[in-house]
Amino acid sequence: MRTRHLPTLTLGLAALALAALAGLPLGATTEPVDYASLDKIKAQGLTAANSQVMELASWMTDVYGPRLSGSPHIQRAGEWAAKTMKEWGLENVALEPWDNQTAFPRGWTNDKFYFAVVEPDAFPIYGMSTAWTPGTNGQVRGQAVLIPTTAEEEVRKFSGQLKGKFVLRQAPPDIPAFWTAPASRFTREQLDAMEAPNRGPEFGLSAPGAAGRGAGGRGGRGGGGGAAGAPPFNVNEFFLKEGVAAVLSTNARGHGLFTISGASRTADPATVLPAITIAAEHYNRIARMLMKNVPVTLEADIRNTYHPKPTMFNVVGEIRGTDKADEIVMLGAHFDSWHVSTGATDNAAGSAAMMEAMRILKQSGVTLRRTVRIALWNGEEQGLIGSREYVAKHFAARGPAPAAPAGGDAARAGGAGAGGRGGGRGGGQGPLEPKPAHAKFQAYFNIDNGTGAIRGVYLQNNQAIGPIFRAWMEPFRTIGMTHLNPGTTGGTDHGSFDGVGLPGFQFIQDRVEYNTVTHHYNMDSYDRLQPEDMRRNATIAAAFAFLAANREDLLPRKPLPQPGAGRGRSNN
Question: Does pTM surpass 0.85?
Answer without folding.
Answer: yes
